[in-house]
């Protein structure tokens, strides 16, 4: 065996890594404030940031970047996802400026950098900053200079237009919902950025807004027609080397100017190819617009409960009944219906009531204690009224939510084999295995009443666990509704988008 040839003399490349992400429901009453981003572990920097999300964008980016010799990653002082999860409203300008300026200072102090990787989301909405991710990229560009390679990863619910890539070089958006491929997009970002820094990738992009606005509950990529759209993007990436195809489905509960669907294609120096692929995908989406809006059936709460009763009577169990519309986590509509209809073997997880959980934990409540309290509701009209629950405390603890947040919780046994989980924040249960961590056995229940839109399909649907799946929302078009014309937008003209107006679209 001969020795390896000497490594060519390549100057080490320095990549700054930062994180700033939120999915903002601007219709929620409670702002996302500076303090919501500050908790044990956040903000963080250096290795703590690089190791913050091993299964997500950050993990994929860091793993792949470290496959290369001569790469130095510098974790810039960054806030992690706010502790309110996705259950809080407008990010205050104070919070945005505080963290953005801290990141820019850290970038300036520790530069120069050959590249900056930004783990973003795309649906952060900031008071007074119409396009917070594009604004961040533009400011980062001013600090690191024109030659650095800027790349970012995005959520499919990002609200983006062409402005981000006017300041940055690369964007990589997750293809699937549930978001299975976050780490893969992080890996792709690392590979493309390293190649661009070495002069082997010259990104050129086309971004097209497609005037379709859709509620996220309809955007499941596990079935047609959203699956077809994802497949078409994957086929283009398979056909053409060095092609990045992004479809941002969009997030309509942010009242920002760039809502709606966005198609974005980047190629290695072939502007005509970027334009051709983007046009092909945008035309497909536009052709499919009617089908894209007619996927999952959404029932009223009472319809959903009635169907669940029929399913249980016929032995079609377990049944999942998901209130997709609850954005604060405090909505009590389903809990109220479970009590009114005297359902059995039902697990309600969860109803958020921060004040009650905090008080019970402070008082040192123990399993076996009797429980008689008003629960949830009230944070705004979409949450409904508090509901009185009488039963026995089953357990308390702290649990990871399916979208990365962490809540304290109290679980309560009530009625005939029912359990209610009360949490500090909105808790998305995405897998029945999550109940095990709370000391519950999924086999003890026939009906799972959860708060989730599509994430839950990961553990309840893609696995074949649920025999019946019912999506519900309250009869009024409250803030998480699929009836977007029931919302009071200030920065969006809904009639500019299908299906609320009759826009034309040609490329
Ligand atoms: Zn998302």
Automatic annotation (TrEMBL):
Residues 14-308 form the Microcystin LR degradation protein MlrC N-terminal domain. Pfam families: DUF1485, MlrC_C. Transmembrane segments: none annotated. Residues 328-471 form the Microcystin LR degradation protein MlrC C-terminal domain. Coiled coil: none annotated. InterPro entries: MlrC_C, MlrC_N. This is M81 family peptidase. It comes from Acidovorax cavernicola. The lineage of its organism: Bacteria, Pseudomonadati, Pseudomonadota, Betaproteobacteria, Burkholderiales.
């Amino acid at each position: 065996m001969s020795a390896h040839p000497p490594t060519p003399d390549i100057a080490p490349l320095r990549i700054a890594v930062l994180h700033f992400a939120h999915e903002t429901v601007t219709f929620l009453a409670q702002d996302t404030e500076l303090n919501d981003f500050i908790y044990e572990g956040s903000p963080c920097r250096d290795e703590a940031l690089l190791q913050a999300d091993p299964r997500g964008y950050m993990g994929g980016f860091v793993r792949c970047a470290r496959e290369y010799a001569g790469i130095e990653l510098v974790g810039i002082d960054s806030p992690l996802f706010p502790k309110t999860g996705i259950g809080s409203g407008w990010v205050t300008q104070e919070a945005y400026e505080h963290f953005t300026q801290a990141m820019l200072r850290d970038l300036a102090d520790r530069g120069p950098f050959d590249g900056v990787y930004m783990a973003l989301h795309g649906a952060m909405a900031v008071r007074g900053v119409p396009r917070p991710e594009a604004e961040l990229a533009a400011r980062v560009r001013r600090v690191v200079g024109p030659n650095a390679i800027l790349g970012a990863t995005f959520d499919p619910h990002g609200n983006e237009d062409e402005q981000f890539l006017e300041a940055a070089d690369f964007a990589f958006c997750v293809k699937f919902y549930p978001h299975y491929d976050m780490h893969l997009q992080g890996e792709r970002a690392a590979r493309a950025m390293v190649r661009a820094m070495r002069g082997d990738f010259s990104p050129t992009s086309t971004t097209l807004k497609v005037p379709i606005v859709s509620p996220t509950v309809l955007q499941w990529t596990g079935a047609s027609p959203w699956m077809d759209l994802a497949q078409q993007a994957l086929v283009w990436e398979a056909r053409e080397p060095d092609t990045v195809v992004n479809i941002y489905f969009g997030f309509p509960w942010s009242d920002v100017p760039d809502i709606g669907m966005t198609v974005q294609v980047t190629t290695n120096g072939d502007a005509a190819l970027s334009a051709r692929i983007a046009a092909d995908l945008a035309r497909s989406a536009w052709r499919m617009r009617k089908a894209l809006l007619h996927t999952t059936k959404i029932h009223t709460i009472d319809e959903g409960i009635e169907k669940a009763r029929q399913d249980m009577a016929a032995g079609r169990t377990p049944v999942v009944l998901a209130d997709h519309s609850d954005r604060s986590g405090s909505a009590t509509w389903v809990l109220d219906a479970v009590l009114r209809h005297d359902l059995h073997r039902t697990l309600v997880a969860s109803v958020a009531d921060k004040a009650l959980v905090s008080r019970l934990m402070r008082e040192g409540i123990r399993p076996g204690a009797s429980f008689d309290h008003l629960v949830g509701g009230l944070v705004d009209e979409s949450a409904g009224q508090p509901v009185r629950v009488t039963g026995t405390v089953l357990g308390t603890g702290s649990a990871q939510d399916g979208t990365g947040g962490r809540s304290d919780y109290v679980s309560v046994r009530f009625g005939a084999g029912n359990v209610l989980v009360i949490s500090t924040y909105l808790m998305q249960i995405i897998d029945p295995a999550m109940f095990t961590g709370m000391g519950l056995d999924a086999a003890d229940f026939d009906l799972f009443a959860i708060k989730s839109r599509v994430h839950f399909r990961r553990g309840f649907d893609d696995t074949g666990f649920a025999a019946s799946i019912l999506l519900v929302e309250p009869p009024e078009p409250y803030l998480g509704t699929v009836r977007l014309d029931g919302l009071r937008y200030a920065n969006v003209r809904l009639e500019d988008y299908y299906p609320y107006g009759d826009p034309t679209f040609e490329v």
